[in-house]
Structure formats: C-alpha cells, structure tokens
Write a structure and sequence with these properties.
flat; transmembrane helix; 6 helices; mainly alpha; 169 residues; 2 domains
C-alpha cells in the first residue's frame, strides 16, 4: 500500500510538471514550473499525511532518541551561528540561515510537545515552546523577512561615514 501511494503521488507530480522540467527551470517558465511542481507535492503530502495518520502506531520505541535530539539542537545552534556570522558580514545569504533557524525552532517545539509524556514533561515542553522557542523563531522569521524585503542583507558599501576621496600621491 505504502509503495503504491508513493508511486501514484510521484506519477502525479511527474505528469503535472511535464517532461520539460529542466528546460523550464532555467527558461522563462520557471515560476510556472515551480508552482505546478509545488501543487503536485501538496497533493502527495496530503495523501501521505492521511496515510501516516491512519497507519502509524501511536506509541513506538525510538532508537538513538538522544542522538536525534542532540542533532536537532546542534542544527539549531549552527543555524544561529551561521546567521550571526553572515549578518556580521552583511551577506545576502543570512536570509537563508535565519529562515532555517526559525524553521528548526518550530520543528523542535512541535516534536517536543507531541512526543512528551503527560504531566511534568509535557508542561515543560509547552513552557519551553511558548516562552523560548516560538518567540525566538518569530524574531528570526521577522528578521529573515526584513532582510528579504529591504535588501538590507547585502549593502553596496561598507557601513560607516563616507570619507573624502583620496587621490594617488
């Protein structure tokens, strides 16, 4: 059943995009191609989410649980570090890292709450999400939007007052 679902969804995406995907991506129709591919992916995920919700067990044993959480938190830390470095360098790529940081914090909050045991662990997960992760994620998302909308991530001249023009001696 699972394999059939993946094959059907993949076929829907392939048919919706068409055979000229690569030429369209670099040609003038790249936005249309991306939109159609996105719609096909939405169809795939809609079916896939329903399938998972109905077939996955509500409880399971997760191997390497500690490594999974350490890896997610490491990703968050690296995204924050790269954001700080790229913002300091006035790099246009800071928008990418701040977006990744914001998204990873939202994922962390979601999984912390949905996997927490009832009682104190769930209370702590909710408090961390509401008081730390989601507010910081919101700030990072607002920063990413500001960088994207204002072009402030890539100034044309270094910061500081303009100096007098100097000629050769």
């Amino acid at each position: 059943m699972k394999v059939a679902l993946v094959l059907i969804s993949t076929a829907i995406v392939a048919i919706s995009v068409g055979p000229s995907i690569f030429s369209s991506l670099w040609g003038r129709k790249w936005r249309r191609t991306a939109a159609v591919a996105g719609a096909g992916i939405v169809v795939f995920y809609s079916v896939w989410i329903l399938y998972l919700a109905r077939t996955l067990p509500s409880e399971t044993v997760a191997n390497n649980w500690n490594i999974a959480w350490a890896a997610l938190d490491s990703f968050e830390g690296l995204a924050a570090l790269f954001s700080a470095v790229l913002l300091h360098k006035h790099s246009k790529y800071a928008v990418v890292t701040t977006t990744a940081f914001s998204t990873s914090l939202c994922i962390d909050a979601l999984f912390a709450i949905t996997t927490a045991s009832p009682g104190m662990p769930l209370t702590v997960a909710i408090l961390q999400a509401v008081l730390i992760e989601l507010p910081v994620a919101t700030l990072a998302a607002v920063l990413a939007l500001k960088l994207l909308n204002t072009g402030a991530s890539a100034p044309s001249t270094p910061p500081g007052p303009p100096g007098p023009a100097t000629g050769g001696t």
